[in-house]
Amino acid sequence: MSIQRITVIGAGAWGTALANASARAGRDVTLWARDAATVVELVATRESPRLPGIKLDERVAATGAIADAAHADAVLLVVPAQELRTAATALSGHVGKGVPIVACAKGIERGTHTFMTDIIAETLPGVVPAILSGPSFASDVARGLPTAVTLACADEAIATALATALGSPTFRPYHTTDVRGVEIGGAAKNVFAIAAGIVHGRKLGASATAAMVTRGFAELARFGRALGARSETLTGLSGLGDVVLSCSSAQSRNFSFGIALGEGNVAPADKLAEGAFTARALAELAAEKDVEMPIAAAVAAVLDGKLSVDRAIEGLLTRPFKAE
Prior knowledge:
about 325 residues, alpha/beta, 8-stranded mixed beta sheet
């Protein structure tokens, strides 16, 4: 299939970055912003307030009209995971059957335990759900720094077409049909990034950080296998790759959120940490599937106010010894 016109729903940092990446790949891009003032600023300055100092590519047109999505060959849904259902519903009537709708959020819907592509399938019957995830910071992608991600769609031909349409020498999407594996990696790594941040904030040392990240990835892999994910996906960019990035850099909002918790501070309200919303859903879904995820459960308990940070750490450190 030919994909030339791309609409990006969401003009935050990640949406702006993906709009620039799509334009850099030679596509015609429409960037939709919910806030009229943001549209005015994008048109007037060609600069996103979420990515100061980075100009929009000349092939990116900003709009506040959701109907403009009707003219797209593919739509990137770049909104927070807990808002994806609302954004997808708003697209109803504006996109035709067979159009790929790519979720670019990393999370699991709270309450329903629904993954992002399933929300798209529920709210937009007839479209083709897909997911883009992997180790990537918005500022790197927007600037054209080398980045590799994973793009998954159940239809291999469409996954290939999407990867080709978005790909450029500095933005490399690897395609797969393992949709669930990609979604699990993106959602779970945010929770473990919070845990890594707590370890850092509590100054428990590099050895503790390495242990937490390794055991956290073991939980991610265990959960993924229980839900049918492929091993190569879990050890690939959208799994292990994203864990490595998110658990090691203060650029990661989830890692920074965890640092604030570890230091006993309040995390900045203007910095969205998806893992803070996903933790409970992940822990609950793991319990439903009878998958042991003690680190994820501990993070959820801390965020829900059921455990203090120190009690959560103590609980993890006093678990029975076992084979790896």
